[in-house]
Amino acid sequence: MPIELREVSYTYAPGTPYAAQALKKISLIVRDGEFVGIMGRTGCGKSTLIQLAAGLLTPSAGQVFLDGEDINERHFDRNRLRQKVGVVFQFPEIQLFETTVEKDTAFGLKYLDWSGEKKQAAVRRALEWMGFDFEAVRNRSPFGFSGGEKRRLAIAGVLAVMPKFLILDEPTAGLDPLSREAFLELLRKLHQGGMTVLMISHDADALAEYAGRIVILKEGMLFRDGPAAEVFSDQEGLKENGISAGQVREMTERLRRRGWEIPCGTIRYGQLLEEIAGRWPR
Ligand SMILES: Nc1ncnc2c1ncn2[C@@H]1O[C@H](COP(=O)(O)OP(=O)(O)OP(=O)(O)O)[C@@H](O)[C@H]1O
Ligand SMILES: [Mg+2]
User: Fold this and answer.
1) Among residues 50, 52, 210, 279, which is most buried (max CB within 10 A)?
2) Are residues 262 and 234 part of one domain?
3) What is the DSSP string of 116-135?
4) Whether the model pTM is above 0.85
5) Ligand 1 atom with minimal separation from the 40 CA
6) Is the separation of the CB atoms in 238 and 202 below 8 Å?
7) Residue 54 near residue 45, CB atoms below 8 Å
8) Do 80 and 105 belong to one domain?
9) Same domain assignment for residues 217 and 273
10) 159-191 pLDDT tens trace
11) Total domain count for the chain?
12) Which atom of ligand 1 is nearest to 42's Cα?
């Protein structure tokens, strides 16, 4: 179920003095089973791009295809899009609105022809995945939680549907380190289970660890698109564009400058540890 953007451009408030062209002729295909990270400076168009990919905005020019079908065609079945593509917004807390956690998490299941038991099992599973005790939270108001907890609740609502394609906009911002770790591990599991993941993040170390491919936007255009090891190896290019390649890359570079021969593709924490441990006298 690939999503393809073909020469997509987007302008906010076109024809007004406030017109802002956020994306310029972006072409991008995300194929089944990929885990793609999107990076770029603030305001470069990342959120706009995923909203177009999820059909929440309509391109000013160009097309978006899901499984080869133009999602902005009049006859396209929008329900299919909602079931297949799950979106966690930049501030997912604003997605919460129901009176109880259980109802809120179940909201996306409304249009699915699943039995009541199957729906409840999906809600329980998603809440447990996000670190909640289902029985303890099910009847509470979603508004009586902290910011980070609300974020986890909102993500549970998206995961309950088990979309084939999961799009996330800075999902780990505002989570404490343990929740961040747990969430990234959950994403890894879902991805290994066959979910395609498209995730915006400024966290280069997380993307190096989990994403196989990195797309970088610059002023509304594609700046880089390639395997994570390749994109993160270009320290200079990233720095020029104001993007940090992460602490692991930083450390690798420093060690290199001191004469350590560390292979180019070293971008993950575990890889770097192996390199260092391998040189340590036993
Ligand atoms: N609702 C809007 N109305 C007008 N202009 C907008 C709107 N939303 C975004 N823009 C403009 O479009 C450009 C891209 O915005 P976008 O939100 O996609 O950036 P981003 O890469 O997600 O940034 P961030 O990292 O801060 O989330 C920006 O220059 C922004 O000013
Ligand atoms: Mg954004």
Assistant:
1) 52
2) no
3) HHHHHHHHHHHHHHTT--HH
4) yes
5) 21
6) no
7) no
8) yes
9) no
10) 999 999 999 999 988 788 888 898 999 999 999
11) 2
12) 25
